[in-house]
């Protein structure tokens, strides 16, 4: 695997305020961007908390997305799953609310909500009527700053995580994707977000509380808000709710550990074989990111895409095949999956690899136009969803420290040409494959494939 390019590795991105290689506390700042109908404004509070908001006057709802830098990469090495348990436990009582009272309070406000975990963050998201946003954020202020983390609910939270991990073991397709990510990305970024089953029994409530104390702080926490909101009012609400949240030292991201091997086999007594293939791509934020997106879309962007047509429809080799563009700060990968019978597994692997490597031989204009049409539909639907916009602007701020508007995305996509996509493919060819097999026997990677 190639190492991340220097210009986008997280340690090397330069702060726009002081030009140093970090993102720490800086004076209050505010930026407003208007393109088309979008109004996006940002503000960093004195304790380091960042608010990113998009005003959408033609809706009645408001949504939020809160990213706290406390994801699975911050798990202790021998306690993988600590952050996942924390994400389960943290909403089971906070401030003046016990677990049931907290749930009822959010239900009374009509909040459609979700808590989850990614490699980098514990996330809190929700949507409600715009008039209920302030009261909703007040409750989340208690969750973030004053969680109970009750010991009497610890076992139930841990059992829920164990159940989620066991369900992966029972689903070979999901297992293949989890294991492909494990091997395609450096540790700990590639490790399962829910942790490791064998670690759970050793995790204690003290471990969970220690992780909370180490990671839950306002600096580097991002709150994205989108909907029928007034920016100045939202900023005032956030100041009142989170202004007293004390800054603490930032937990350092652990060092990345790259795998030395790129062929992996897990024996499973079954009539099916599950294949995972990964190879290098550019990360989000790279100047050629949208060319990379188009290349993957031509491979796997619906039933007219190449993998579906060539591997499944023409040859009937598999019952499902797909590819997606995935990444972490500074590193992008294409992840492919195919599920087939064990008798046809070798041929499925051979044909899939052939389709990946021959993409650079040429692209039809119609293939690119279909990608653009799908993107336009997706952008229109995203523009109508406050939840989608809140999540997108929060993620943009994390990855880029700026917001990419829908108009900018549309412009990038519409300016793509077959020559530009081919130039990207030639500069970043499908090669250096990581290949994962789950089935009764290992498969051979063709000798002419690097």
Please explain how this structure is put together.
- This protein has 450 residues and is of the alpha+beta class.
- The chain contains 15 helices and 12 strands.
- The strands form 2 sheets. Strands 1-2-3-7-4-6-5 form a 7-stranded mixed sheet, with helices on both faces. The protein has a 5-stranded mixed sheet with strand order 8-12-9-11-10, sandwiched between helices.
- A hairpin with a 2-residue loop joins strand 10 and strand 11.
- Helix 1 packs across helix 4 and helix 3 packs parallel to helix 8.
- The protein is globular.
- The N and C termini lie close together (12 Å).
Percent of residues in helical segments?
Answer: 25-40%
Give the helix/strand class.
alpha+beta
Helical element count?
15
Strand residues, percent: 15-25%
- Number of strand segments: 12
What is the mean pLDDT?
89
Low-confidence stretches: 1-35
CA-based shape: globular
How is the biggest beta sheet arranged?
A: 7 strands, mixed
Would you list the SSEs in sequence order as H and E?
Answer: EEEEHHEEHHHHHEHEEHHEEHHHHHE
The neighbouring-strand order within the major sheet is 1-2-3-7-4-6-5
Radius of gyration: 23 Å
Span between termini: 12 Å
